[in-house]
Design a protein that fits this description.
With 194 residues, the protein is α+β, with helices and mostly antiparallel strands. It has six helices and nine strands; from the N terminus they run βααββαββααβαβββ. It has a five-stranded antiparallel β-sheet, sandwiched between helices. A four-stranded antiparallel β-sheet has the order 3-1-8-9, covered by helices on one side.
Length: 194
């Protein structure tokens, strides 16, 4: 089972992100549009911990460990868009998240503790060294896209207006299963904890 732990995006964020995606597509040429894979609004979320392939027998212990996580109310808002990978090469466009990021970072630590308590492996050293950047992925850049198109996309993202802040009070986390076997990914919420 391919699993991750997340904060689900509220409907208001999904609507705001759909507008951001349109603005992004409108600000780049046709070739750059073709190089972008837009993420469906219903799939947008803030990943707290990607687990990857997990044995089905680990789900019950993981859910029990997540039940014990103290999930605080976390006040969050949408922030400016950015890119992952720039300047060489950009591979994803994201909507930034602002708000009580210190509380959110503490929640990420508790989620990681729960993952390890359930007997799953810890983050790799490379993952531990990377700072946690809460975000919603709004588009991915195709691997075959040439650098000139990637630079055009970077420039367009840098000039996107910030969305309305759209405050949200997150109160629960979700354990989600992803399916990549069809033409588009799909997600199934296995449990919510909070």
């Amino acid at each position: 089972m391919r699993l991750f732990i997340t904060l689900e995006a509220p409907e208001e964020w999904r609507v705001a992100e759909a507008a951001q995606q349109i603005a992004l597509l409108d600000s780049v040429g046709e070739d750059a549009q073709d190089a972008l894979r837009i993420v469906s609004a219903e799939l947008m979320h803030i990943t707290l911990r990607f687990l990857g392939e997990v044995d089905e027998g680990a789900v019950d212990p993981l859910q029990a460990a997540l039940d014990a996580v103290a999930v605080p109310e976390v006040a969050l808002t949408l922030a400016r868009a950015g890119t992952f990978g720039a300047p060489s090469p950009t591979w994803a466009i994201y909507q930034g998240i602002a708000g009580d990021l210190e509380v959110l970072a503490g929640l990420v630590t508790r989620v990681e503790d729960a993952v390890q308590l359930a007997g799953l492996p810890p983050l790799s050293r490379a993952e531990q060294a990377r700072p946690f950047t809460p975000h919603l992925t709004i588009a991915r850049v195709q691997r075959s896209a040439p650098n000139a198109l990637r630079r055009e996309i970077d420039d367009a993202v840098a000039h996107l207006d910030a969305p309305p802040p759209t405050p949200h009070l997150a109160r629960e986390i979700a354990l989600v299963r992803s399916y990549l076997d069809g033409p588009k990914p799909r997600y199934e919420v296995l449990s919510r904890h909070g």
